[in-house]
Amino acid sequence: MSPVNFLLPLLVCSLVPISSLKKMAPKVERVLENFIVGEAPHWDVATQNLYFIDCPGKSINRYDPVTKSHHQAVTDGNRVAFFIPVEGKQNDYIIGIDNELVHIVWDGTSNKIEKWEKLVEVPDKQVQFNDGKADPAGRLWTGTMAVITPSGDVPPNKGAFYSLENGQLKQHIGEVHISNGLAWNSDLKKMYYIDSGRRTVDEFDYDQENGTISNRKPIFTLEKHNIPGIPDGMTIDSDGNLWVAVFLGSRVIKIDPRKPETLLDTVTLPALQVTSAAFGGPNLDELYVTTGRDTRMSKHLQPPVDGALYRVTNTGSKGLPSNKVKISV
User: Does residue 12 fall inside a structural domain?
Assistant: First the structure.
């Protein structure tokens, strides 16, 4: 072999960045602890804060990662479902609580909610709201599930899936087991949705102007990939991939919704009950993951590992800004 041929591979390797030779593993960091069931994380770009809830803890929460400060207020009611800022109104939020949608005012610091106004309710008190998000137009989408029994069971197919239209609930789907994760793709033609009882991630054709969905089909099935647990909350990244929290599965999975049944990556977490995820941080490249320690469903779960808020970095992905609710309140 000539000296040139011998040196060529070494020269080529020297030109390749080390980062391209080995992918950095995601870093999982515990940032807050001791929630019963943390859920519904929402990153607010304006304040650079994370908002989330503790469902059975009846609380709304704000976390400032710069100051590492955490503020919490306990609500009136039995169970909080989600907590979303209102567009154009400082300190105003829409929350789901029990079977009601409520407008509140909270300064983000005190342990008291200043204003409490019911907007609408589902007449059946045997169901409760669970998870909700605003679409890119600011329209609120949320669903329900049966009230959880003392043993932790959820009677099947008692819920429904709604949008909030002109102060009224518009039902899109019935016979829902546990209405959960939501996301929209960047061209606003698809909506992704999870009914946890199906153990699938589903896709709808989405008409933003009319607020309608159609042509439902599953795009990822946990059973086909031997993934334990059930799909819960989810978010979408700037590349169009979904990040799905797996409750009772100790993981967040990254899937490509454009290629059915395509698992791209798995981030393992120490907590068993992984509930939801949202991208945050100044560059939207930090994945915040909520977890639970509900002993009705899983015995012997303990803080600080279970029921913690985690931050995952080095995923190689960035998220999209979370949508606020646009509503006259």
Answer: no
Residue 186, pLDDT score? 86
Q: From CA 85, how far away is CA 322, in angstroms rounded?
A: 10
124 is in an annotated binding site: no
The answer to whether the annotation marks 91 as part of a ligand binding site is no
Q: Following CA atoms 37, 44, 98, 235 in sequence, which dihedral angle do they give, to the nearest 10 degrees? A: -60
Residues with catalytic roles: 232
Which residues does residue 93 pair with via DSSP β-bridges, in sequence order? 85, 104
Residue 21 has pLDDT above 90, yes or no: no
Structural domain tally of the chain? 1
Range of the domain at 191: 26-313
Q: Measure the CA–CA gap between 136 and 321, rounded to whole angstroms.
A: 10
Q: Is the overall model pTM greater than 0.85, yes or no?
A: yes
The answer to whether 130 is a known ligand-binding residue is yes
Q: What is the pLDDT of residues 219-238, one digit of tens each?
A: 999 999 999 999 999 999 99
Measured CA to CA, the distance from residue 34 to residue 304 in angstroms comes to 6
13, containing H or E segment: helix 3-15
Q: What is the CATH number of the domain that holds 233?
A: 2.120.10.30
**Apex 178 CA angle, 151 and 259, nearest 5:** 135
Question: Is 117 assigned a ligand-binding role in the annotation?
Answer: no
pLDDT above 70: percentage of residues in the chain: 92
